[in-house]
Amino acid sequence: MSKPSAMLGRGKAKLAVAAHPMLIISTTSSHTRTTSGNFFDDLMNQIPLPRWAIYVIVAVGILLILLCCLCICIKCCCKGKKKKKFQRDEQINLKGVDGKTSTVLVQPDVVDVDYGSTKVYRGKLLYSLEYNAALSELTVGIKQANNLKAMDLGGSSDPYVKLYILPEKSKTYETKVFKNTLSPVFNEQFTFQLPRSSLLKSTAVMKVFDFNRFTKHQVIGELRLQLGDVDWNHVIEEWQDLAEPAKFEDENLGEICFSLRYVPTANKLTVVILEAKNLRSMDFGGSSDPYVKVQLTLDKRKWKKKTTSIKKKTLNPYFNESFTFEVSFDQIQRVNLVVSVWDHDTVTRNDAIGKVFLGCNASGNQLRHWADMLSNPRRPVAQWHSLLSAEQVNSTLALKKRIPVPNKVKESPLFEKHFK
Ligand SMILES: [Ca+2]
Ligand SMILES: [Ca+2]
């Protein structure tokens, strides 16, 4: 019995187990060696579940872990894309929305970068102007725009035009919004009631905006037309390049009345600052302490300057102060008269309330006053002027390249010493 059992190989050990107790030890030892290599089999045996069920549970577990990883990845990637999606939604929802819709600032301004750069091409606008003197009616047509600057991330804009007349600004019109285009065709007309006398001293402002549903509307560019310069015998229809939007506010700054008198034989220019009214309040408590600077520039340079007394706490000061300058007949053609109203402050720097400039290169109402003075020698000619913001007057003077010296240089003590 023992002989055949000894002949048996390891594979048949189980048969021998029952027959011989000696072999039990050897077989069990060999069995332990096998399970240490196959730990998982043993583990599975201990779980009171069928093999297929265990495999299913493990597979589901791995699948869940993979899904979690995938979710994290997608979340990370989406952060970047969200902004673009926002923009797309905005354009889709634009239908039927006009410019009057109040906007809520949901995301911070992204497109604010271009402000201040002057040489950006902003596109052009086709407008028409017509004045009906019998009805005192000005009709402004906003026809179309071309090649507008793209303000949205997708490389397009949603243009509309705001239109008003300065200085009254009694009415502000808006065209419809055209979504996702840089060449909108507006074809809209707007009428203003404007007597001829105010027409000639008014400015038509056309501002092209980019509509945004969730962020502040951006100015693409603007046109400012001095209506005193327009030949009203014809209907005007023309293209003009949009300019950089003005940084100054179109506010009612007040009016000033002064008289001008030129005596060529005596080489004397006399400016009488009479009064001002409805001045903007600059001080806490709704008042100002106005005074007036009367300045002459000659050949684009600061030349002479005189100042009135300060009137305390009033928005309607009465000055009646006279200033005489020696100006030869040769010089009067090259002179600009700059009249500016200031608010005096004892502690802080004095602020400019508003400004006007007159001279042969002025326009509208200001040019008319200057021309009246020249054509009526020896006679004082008084007139009211609406104040413009100092920035606006300075930019106009600079724009016409009449005063090429930058203001900062002109106000430096060195300049005063050389040119005063
Ligand atoms: Ca837009
Ligand atoms: Ca003050």
From TrEMBL:
A GO MF label: SNARE binding
InterPro entries: C2_dom, C2_domain_sf, Synaptotagmin
Transmembrane segments: 54-78
Entry-linked SUPFAM superfamilies: C2 domain (Calcium/lipid-binding domain, CaLB) (SSF49562)
Protein's GO biological process: calcium ion-regulated exocytosis of neurotransmitter; synaptic vesicle endocytosis
Alphabetized Pfam families for the sequence: C2 (PF00168)
GO cellular component terms given for this protein: axon; dense core granule; plasma membrane; synaptic vesicle membrane
Source superkingdom: Eukaryota
Keyword Repeat: yes
Keyword Cytoplasm set for record: no
Location of the C2 domain: 121-240, 252-385
Keywords attached to this entry: Membrane, Repeat, Transmembrane, Transmembrane helix
Stated family: Belongs to the synaptotagmin family.
Name this polypeptide is given: Synaptotagmin-1-like isoform X1
Organism annotation: Austrofundulus limnaeus (Annual killifish)
Taxonomic placement: Eukaryota, Metazoa, Chordata, Craniata, Vertebrata
Gene designation per UniProt: LOC106518267
